[in-house]
Each structure stands twice: as structure tokens, then as C-alpha cells.
Design brief:
By secondary structure, this protein is of the alpha/beta class. It is built from five helices and five strands, in the order βαβαβαβαβα. The protein has one domain: Response regulator (Rossmann fold, 3-Layer(aba) Sandwich), CATH 3.40.50.2300. The longest helix has 13 residues.
């Protein structure tokens, strides 16, 4: 018999974040950080998988590496921004490239924010919070 004062409520919808990077250690580290902070996280290790995950997972935010084999992050970003769906998904670029030209190229393609590797947990979480506000 259940306690009449206790009611079951629907679980709170968690913010969904897709992390795309070809380095397993980066995927694992970011997944751990996001999981510990209450986010629903999926990962993709290349551009093609990222585009598939976007359709299936419907993320609220994407963290995207630039330099990857096959389809690079800039190409993925262009395809995200050129989608017919009206929902604009914020994209945080994550890269070891810290050249001004590459950073501005990312912004010109529609990136919302840029974090340079190596990054700190606080820097990553601050960037995510800023993009979700």
C-alpha cells in the first residue's frame, strides 16, 4: 500500500547535449562532467555520426571539435546551420586551434561560442550556461 501523501511526478526534462570529438579521452572527460552536472549527454566520434545523432537525439546544445577525420567540425557546423528545421541549436566549438582566423571562421559559420583545448571544467560549464540562458 502506498503512502497517500507521496505522489509520483514526471521526471524533470534534462538538457540534452551532444559532444562531438575524435579523441576518446575528451569524449569521456566531457561526458563525466556533464553527467555529474545533471545533463543528458550523447557522444559522436566523427562528423557523420554527429549528423545522425542530431536527428535522433535532438540536442539542446552541441559541443563540436573542429579537427576530425572525414567530415570536419566546420562542415558539420555548416550543415547544422543550413538545416530546414527552424530550431536554432547553439554550437560551442572546442578545439586546440587558437588562431584568430580559425576562431572567426567558426563564428562566421554560426558557432555560438569557442573554447580552446585544454579547457577547465569551470570554463566548459560557464560556456554551456551562457549558451543556455
Amino acid at each position: 500500500m502506498s503512502d497517500p501523501e507521496v505522489t509520483e511526478s514526471e521526471p524533470e526534462a534534462r538538457i540534452k547535449i551532444l559532444v562531438v570529438d575524435d579523441e576518446d579521452s575528451v569524449l569521456h572527460a566531457i561526458s563525466e562532467i556533464l553527467g555529474q552536472n545533471g545533463f543528458d549527454c550523447k557522444t559522436a566520434s566523427d562528423g557523420r555520426s554527429a549528423l545522425e545523432q542530431i536527428e535522433q537525439f535532438e540536442p539542446d546544445l552541441i559541443i563540436l571539435d573542429i579537427v576530425m577525420p572525414g567530415i570536419d567540425g566546420f562542415t558539420v557546423l555548416e550543415q547544422i546551420k543550413n538545416r530546414q528545421e527552424p530550431r536554432d541549436i547553439p554550437v560551442i566549438l572546442l578545439s586546440g586551434l587558437d588562431e584568430d582566423g580559425k576562431i572567426w571562421e567558426g563564428y562566421n559559420l554560426g558557432a555560438s561560442y569557442y573554447i580552446t583545448k585544454p579547457f577547465t571544467t569551470d570554463e566548459l560549464l560557464a560556456g554551456i550556461q551562457l549558451m543556455l540562458e
